[in-house]
Amino acid sequence: MKENILIPKPNSTFLHIQCSKCEEKNIVYSHTTSNIYCKSCNELLAERSGGRAKIHGNLLNPLD
Length: 64
Ligand SMILES: [Zn+2]
Description:
By secondary structure, this protein is an all-beta fold. The protein has no helices and 6 strands. The chain has a domain at 31-57. The strands form 2 sheets. The protein has a 3-stranded antiparallel beta sheet, with no helix packed on it. A 3-stranded antiparallel beta sheet has the order 3-4-5, with no helix packed on it. Strand 4 and strand 5 (54-55) form a beta hairpin. The chain starts with 13 loop residues before the first strand and ends in a 5-residue tail after the last strand. The structure holds zinc ion (ZN). Zinc ion (ZN) binds at residues 19, 21-22, 24, 38, 40-41, 43.
């Protein structure tokens, strides 16, 4: 039987990612379960990986 209990991940956070293509800053959840695209040019910024997302843009300082 598959366990399906959601446990909050302590390292999850929101990241500030700057698009490498158009330099637009986007806020991305670090453990996103869907791919995140730049809101301005649609470039892939974060790729879902089952854990911490793979970041494709420029990672800026975490939000306060
Ligand atoms: Zn962009």
